[in-house]
Amino acid sequence: MLFADLKIFRPALLAVPAALVAASLAAVFLLAGPAQASSRIKDLASVEGIRENHLVGYGLVVGLDGTGDSLRNAPFTRQSLQAMLERLGVNTRDANLNTDNVAAVMVTGNLPAFGAQGSRMDISVATLGDATSLLGGTLLVTPLMGADGEVYAVAQGPVAVAGFSAEGDGASVKRGVATSGRIPNGAIIEREIAFALDDLSTVRLSLHNPDLTTAQRMANVINTFIGGDTATATDPSTVALSIPRNGKNAVVSMLTEIEQLRVSPDSPAKVVIDEASGVIVMGKDVRVSTVAIAQGNLTIRVTETPQVSQPNPFAEQGQTAIVPRTNIDVDDDAENRLGLLREGVTLESLVDGLNALGVGPRDMISILQTIRAAGALQAELEVL
């Protein structure tokens, strides 16, 4: 019966017109286009109040193989070591400490939102003194405090270091940074930050990239999905949500559904330039008015090729002398011509035009800044 069914349906499939198949595929791609250009609200905004909190602490790393702080150059390490030993019942006030297996470090971490007491978090460790490596070290018990001065976590554990360094009498090698490391799950949360999310009557979504159009689109999508005037765009970076009281966990249930909705984000035309590295990033909406561009540099090369002049083999007198020979080349880029960019050209046309002139990244930065100064660049120019 299975093979008979296949024979029956095969002629029907072959009889479908090719134009209908092409039209169906075109419709599928048209429907898939906006979905690919859109993003989830979860990726575009964060819920106000659901955030991390920075923690910081000061501690000691022990067990280093001679790569710790020199106590003479790091008095804070000596004082911390003496204070720690005194708490353990060891008096070292009058002793001449000369160990190099201890390093003073700063410990940092981010307390996660709704971090429960007893759960763990990752921490980072970095040296304060002249220690050369934390490889093989162990962090001793270190309280981590918040901005309010309260202790929210306690850290301890072996430090994982990605970099290393080694040196001898005639050579040295260094890879990565050996004076900082991480301790995965190295801190235990001792205090929770109270935040009653489900008791809120209004929740605000904070956009990662503030924009009026994106905020309004987000509010429209939420209202279409839920109904009514649940969402309101109050400013370019905030969308306020009114929580309907229809039972327990109303806020969590509503946010779970909303964060999966898709919105097509909008952004202003912008050109970002990093002069230090020569990186240029231009948005797709960048436009340029009609403008003529010429790029050229004056290059002068001076080459010294001295020659040695010697007397004849049978000359009675004479001496060897060095005769200078100087060659000067001047390149004024006379072959470069003006390039014309038409009204409202796209980003692709702008890049193609600048590349046709043989413009490098450094010169392109100067050209973009000059175009902006001439009022022909219809975009925001940001220099890092």
Automatic annotation (TrEMBL):
Q: Name one GO molecular function term.
A: structural molecule activity
Give the GO terms filed under biological process for this record: bacterial-type flagellum-dependent cell motility
Q: What GO terms fall under cellular component here? A: bacterial-type flagellum basal body, distal rod, P ring; outer membrane-bounded periplasmic space
Keyword Transmembrane helix attached: no
Keywords recorded for this protein, A-Z: Bacterial flagellum, Cell projection, Cilium, Flagellum, Periplasm, Signal
Family, according to the entry, reads as follows: Belongs to the FlgI family.
Subunit comment = The basal body constitutes a major portion of the flagellar organelle and consists of four rings (L,P,S, and M) mounted on a central rod.
Q: What is this protein called?
A: Flagellar P-ring protein
Which source organism? Pyruvatibacter mobilis
